[in-house]
Amino acid sequence: MAQAHELANALNAVARSASFNNTQARATARKHGKVNWPLTKAENADFNPEVDGFETFVMEDGSRCAWVAGQGRYAGRA
Q1: Looking at the 3D structure of the chain, how many domains does it have?
Q2: How would you class 8 by CB atoms within 10 Å of its CB: exposed for 0-12, middle for 13-18, buried for 19 or more?
Q3: I need a labelling partner for 1 at 20 to 30 A (CA). Which of 20, 58, 63, 77 fits?
């Protein structure tokens, strides 16, 4: 779960910007290098940014970095 926490910290630093969007989130995740992109794409197959907010990223260790809408930030989850 350490990978998800590391990515959450990186994403939360960028998310403070009023113009933060899914494109910026993906770019930050790509820089991280530990995202399992095939599983991330499968996880977000029915993703709708108007309803879901931001995508969930699946990490190589199986943990997830997910958007917590009520708190306006990303958090690592097992």
Answers
A1: 1
A2: buried
A3: 20
pLDDT at 46 over 90: yes
The token pair that represents 26 in the structure block: 């993906």
Q: What is the DSSP string of 8-68?
A: HHHHHHHHTSTT--HHHHHHHHHHH--B-HHHHHHHTTT--HHHH-S--EEBTTS-EEEEE
Distance CA 8, CA 13 (A): 9
C-alpha closest to that of 58 among 17, 15, 10, 4 = 4
Q: At what angle do helices 2-15 and 22-32 cross, to 10 degrees?
A: 140
Q: Which domain holds residue 38?
A: 2-77
> How far does Cα 9 stand from its chain's mean position?
10
Average pLDDT over residues 36-60: 93
